[in-house]
Amino acid sequence: MFTLDAFVLGAGGFSEGDILFQLAMFLILLFLLKKFAWGPLMGIMKQREDHIAGEIEAAERSRTEAKQQLEEQRQLLKEARQDAQELIENARKQGDAQREEIILAARAESERMKEATLREIETEKDQAVAALREQVATLSVLVASKVIEKELTVEEQQQLINETIAKAGDLR
Amino acid sequence: MNHEAPLAEFLGLTFNLSNVLMITVASAIVFLIAFISTRALAMKPTGMQNFMEWIMDFVRNIIKSNMDWKTGGSFHILGITLIMYVAISNFLGLPFAITYDHYLWWKSPTADPIVTMTLAVMVIALTHYYGIRMKGFSEYGKDFFRPMGFLFPLKIIEEFANTLTLGLRLYGNIYAGEILLGLLAGSLAAGFWGHLAAVIPTLAWLGFSVFIGAIQAFIFVMLTMVYMAHKVSSDH
Fold it and tell me: B29-46: per-residue pLDDT in tens?
């Protein structure tokens, strides 16, 4: 250094005190900056790094959760759709069964009514026949009594018969 | 440019008071910039915090390009302080030079070989210290005989050469810049036409000196980390 000094342009003499001063100042500067500037700055940078990492992790987690929930919802929707399909199927089946039943019941009812009507007609007919028979008897008795009451000519007789028949017709 | 350095004796040591002044000023400016810009720290950085974080990332990248971050991380603070101190020191001599009573008071502290060599020796000493601390003394010693034993003398020379080039490169660049600035501003600018002729080269050289100051700060830190990596990393 001493010989160097002679050759270096502008070197203002060798001042060994500067060496110590520069060294001391630099070390003090290093220490102060570490304590007051770089330390806190590095702290906040680390904090940000951690924050970002945490956020990314949280986002990842919520994405997985959302995916899972979506899958769940899809499953539920599928089930609901299936249930609805089943319900419709059941209702249709039930409706078909009911229709069959109603038709059957109606058919039976109509059959029954027909039967009943036929029976009634039969009864009415029987009754009418019985009533006619009774009338004929009564008329015969009437005619006989008339005959007995009076000798009749053929014309009269004929007239009488006609009258009687007409009466009988009216009676009916 | 024939200004004297204001020397003073104190406790048997010679002090260049101009250096003492400028070292103090540079340190104060660096500290104030760093201190003020890290007052209102926030998770979402604004203004000066962005700038400081950019410097941190810049130095981090310098270190990462030389060694892995696990070993290099401990030199981060050294690197940031060094790059800011050297850069500010380089810029200090650019706006003006103050001479008083034939003594040169205001200049770049890095325009003096004593200052730059002090920084260089400190850096090289630190590389040796960390080399021993991180790899152990025997590994550190064996590194002088790698890759071949007969290279040992060259390795020893290399250490001194590294120290000298690291310090003198910085000194030479900054000192030459200031000399030329002084010439342009002082000698050429004589009379009206001299002033007129000096304006444009002065402006150009000022801009170039700013560039050189920043580049030299970067180179100083880069080489610091290169030498550091040479000593502390195990793969060569």
Answer: 988 888 888 887 777 777
pLDDT of residue A5: 44
In a domain, B5, yes or no: no
Into how many domains does chain B fold?
A: 1
Interface list for A 23-42 with B (CB within 8 A): 23, 25-26, 28-30, 32-34, 36-38, 40-42
Judge: B122–A23 Cβ closer than 8 Å, yes or no. yes
| Contact list, B161 vs chain A (CB under 8 Å) | none
- CB-closest option in B30, B43, B112 to A51: B43
Q: Could you give the ipTM of this predicted complex? A: 0.79
Q: Coil, strand, or helix at residue A13?
A: coil
Cβ distance of B16 and A51 shorter than 8 Å: no
The pTM assigned to this predicted structure is: 0.69
Range of the domain at B132: 56-96+111-232
- The set of residues, in sequence order, having a beta carbon less than 8 Å from that of B69 and lying 6+ positions away, is B60, B63
Residues on chain A touching B7 (C-beta within 8 angstroms): 12-13, 15
Evaluate whether residue B6 is within a structural domain: no
Let me know if residue B180 belongs to a domain. yes
Question: How many CB pairs below 8 Å do chains A and B form together?
Answer: 132
Residue B69 covered by a domain:
yes
